[in-house]
Amino acid sequence: MENKFKDNLKLLRQEKGIGQVELAQKLGVSKGIISLWENGLREPTMNSLIEMAKFFDVSIDYLVGLSN
């Protein structure tokens, strides 16, 4: 299955006009973690997914590519 999460995360971040450092600060993770997520090298925890969904005002299903 294609990993749409990494693409959706990058797109949402860019649409919001923020960099990886700012997003990392908002989510309470390191900039390196954001980079790993966006490159598909790591997957976020459930808590991180929840925080991202709240921050971007989208569903977790959207974040992980299960809905449009």
Brief digest:
This protein has 5 helices and no strands. The mean pLDDT is 94.
Q: What fraction of the residues are assigned to beta strands by DSSP?
A: under 5%
Q: How many β-strand stretches?
A: 0
CATH architecture tag: Orthogonal Bundle
User: Can you tell me the residue ranges where pLDDT is under 50 for at least 5 consecutive residues?
Assistant: none
The third-level CATH topology is: 434 Repressor (Amino-terminal Domain)
Order of helices and strands: HHHHH
Number of domains: 1
Shape: globular
Helix content: 55-70%
The major sheet is characterized as:
none
Radius of gyration: 11 Å
Structural class designation: mainly alpha
Specify the number of helices: 5
Q: In the CATH hierarchy, what is the superfamily?
A: lambda repressor-like DNA-binding domains
